[in-house]
Amino acid sequence: MAKKTGRSIFTTQTASYLLIILVLSATFSIFFFSTAKGHLEKQVGGKLADIARIASRNAPFARLDLIKVGDDETRMVLRLKEKLGEIQEATGVENIIIFGMDKRSLLDLRPDHLIGSTYNPPRFDKSFTHDLGRGNAISTDSYRSPSGKFFISAFAPVMDAQGKLFAVVGVDGGAAEVGIIEQMRARLYWIAGLSVVFAFILALFLARRLTRPIRGIAETAERIGKGDYQARVPLPPTAELRVLADSINSMAQQVQERDKQLKEMSANVAHEIRNPLNSLKLQLTLLGEELGDVTDGPPPKTLDTLHYEIGKLNRFLTEFLTYSRPMTLIRDAVAPGDLVQATLEMALAAAEEKDVEVNIISEADLPTIHADRDRLEQSLLNILLNAVQACEAGGKVEMKIKRSKDGNSIGFLVEDTGPGIPEDVVGHLFEPFFTTKETGTGLGLSNTQRIVFSHGGKISAENLAHRGARFTITIPISTSTTQRD
């Protein structure tokens, strides 16, 4: 399989959907918060402006004009503070202050602020003086004080006898006035956090919905590339992907038909070759008998060599015919443990001859599989014999049987203590006619893979971390009762 490089479609789509949803959520949240905040500030500011007007009416110019520095405890000042304190208590505002145009305090309800103290009104814009001079009350936007609290302030004018601006009454809104804005801000943060979580989940769902058919198409194409020409892509709902799936399925159908034609032709050629070989073998046997009668001794070594080479060609033709013939599976309920035990008995002689220990490790209570017992025995035997041959004397082979994590298939694992598979060979193991053995045909593992694919299963080979190799055959537990290659 080709090495994966770059970002996957799933990752790209997830990031794209997530970015789009977050941008939309952020835009909507900012717009909603700004609109709602402006509306609430206008309402709260209007309320505070009304309170400032009421306070200015209770602090007329005639009295304020008499206030001098040091009059904090005079009867008039105390009387003014009492009236403004009643307004503060009734409305719940944070503070009420009166200051002159020189920014010096004329009256402040805070006990530690004396008359004549310099006062810098928060968020007091220069344009406010013009509006106040026209007799209008004004308010600020919400702001954070040095103590960390949020406030909204309002200002109302106090006019002198000529109708000019003499002083300004300032009202600072307290927690009751700005609390609703803070609650809205806190809720917005919660909504933003939940939106991120929702956006991530929705992005995963949308990306998975798009990429699942693409992965299915890629997996099917990979199976076709490995020789499983029966593989077909389920048609996805998306029109563009449906066109691609139709093209893949059409290609697979054409490749399957071409493969069938080539196999039929190859089988005919093999038959035509086998007949002369059988005739040659018979003639060599007769020739050996005649030479024996004439020379009264053993036949020449040349005849033995010819017999060996003819036998080798016959073995190749047998495996080739197995590879090229259409495969019909005769399925039945097969117990995985019995299947492996029978395979071990057939390979026991070869293992004993090479002094290789073979053990079976099986999970308990494994379900039966619906499979062609003879074909699977042939596949497992081929894998087991290869493992035995790969080991040196005193080596060890383990055949493991276990159920898959999803519970839908049975895995047959054959592990050996041999030298492992060369890295440049791993990718070619199941290719027809590829072999590293001097006397191999290169069709044993190809036939094994073909049998496994015909059962709807998978086969893979890998090197173990310490030493040796592992072949894994996975067969579905429940499949159709008949399948023809």
What does this structure look like?
- The protein has 3 domains: 9-181, Beta-Lactamase (2-Layer Sandwich); 239-324, Orthogonal Bundle (Helix Hairpins), CATH 1.10.287; 332-476, Heat Shock Protein 90 (2-Layer Sandwich), CATH 3.30.565.10.
- 54% of the residues lie in helices and 15% in strands.
- It has helices spanning 9-57, 61-64, 75-91, 126-133, 175-225, 239-295, 301-324, 336-353, 373-390, 423-426, 444-454, and strands spanning 95-100, 105-108, 138-139, 143-144, 150-151, 153-159, 165-172, 332-334, 357-362, 369-371, 396-403, 409-416, 458-463, 469-476.
- The protein has a 5-stranded antiparallel β-sheet, with helices on both faces.
- A hairpin with a 5-residue loop joins strand 11 (396-403) and strand 12.
List the helices and strands and how they pair.
Layout: H1 9-57, H2 61-64, H3 75-91, E1 95-100, E2 105-108, H4 126-133, E3 138-139, E4 143-144, E5 150-151, E6 153-159, E7 165-172, H5 175-225, H6 239-295, H7 301-324, E8 332-334, H8 336-353, E9 357-362, E10 369-371, H9 373-390, E11 396-403, E12 409-416, H10 423-426, H11 444-454, E13 458-463, E14 469-476
Parallel strand pairs: 9-11
Antiparallel strand pairs: 1-2, 1-7, 3-6, 4-5, 6-7, 8-10, 11-12, 12-14, 13-14
Helix pairs in contact: 1-5, 5-6, 6-7, 8-9, 9-11
Brief write-up:
The chain is of the alpha+beta class.
